[in-house]
Amino acid sequence: MDHFEMLRTGRAHVSAEVTMIPTEEGGRKIPALPGFMCSAMLSMEQPLVGYTAWLLLGDTPIKPGDVRTVGLVFANPDAIDLFRAADEFYLWEGHVIAHARVISDRQDAANDDIGAT
User: Fold this and answer.
1) Separation CA 90–CA 39 (nearest Å)
2) Which of 36, 107, 115, 117 is the most exposed place for a label (fewest CB within 10 A)?
């Protein structure tokens, strides 16, 4: 399985309800496409600490203003337990682009919903 296929059909470390900030409120100008990667942050306190995360979007982009349940996969294994224990976190791309709320900390939580809106 190649990297893109893993991100399209893979297992999530965390399932979250992601609320993308609308463009007019400072969010992304374009949708995040399948394979999208950004930093996930537990806090906006200094110093900022981010963990590389991929959003499991299936075949469906997530647009500014969308609210959607997605799975997340973290590049750093140390991040998995931190985010599983979190209630809320932020997605960062030079600035906050989304707010997220953990809805399940099961390893396979988002598998059935990959690509769902």
Assistant:
1) 8
2) 117
Reported as a single tens digit per residue, the pLDDT across 64-90 is 999 999 999 998 989 999 998 888 999
Predicted confidence at residue 5, as pLDDT, reads 58
DSSP string, the chain: --HHHHHHH---SEEEEEEEPPGGGT--SSPBPTT-EEEEES--SSSP-EEEEEEE-TT--B-TT-EEEEEEEESSHHHHHHHHH-SEEEEESSSEEEEEEEEE--TTTTGGGTT--
The answer to whether residues 89 and 74 touch, using CB atoms and an 8 Å cutoff, is no
Between residues 107 and 30, the one the model is more confident about: 30
Top-tier CATH class for 3-110: mainly beta
Q: How far apart are CA 73 and CA 68, in angstroms?
A: 16
Q: How many CB atoms lie within 10 A of CB 95?
A: 10
Averaged confidence pLDDT in the chain = 85
How big is the CA angle at 54 (ends 51 and 56), to the nearest 5 degrees?
145
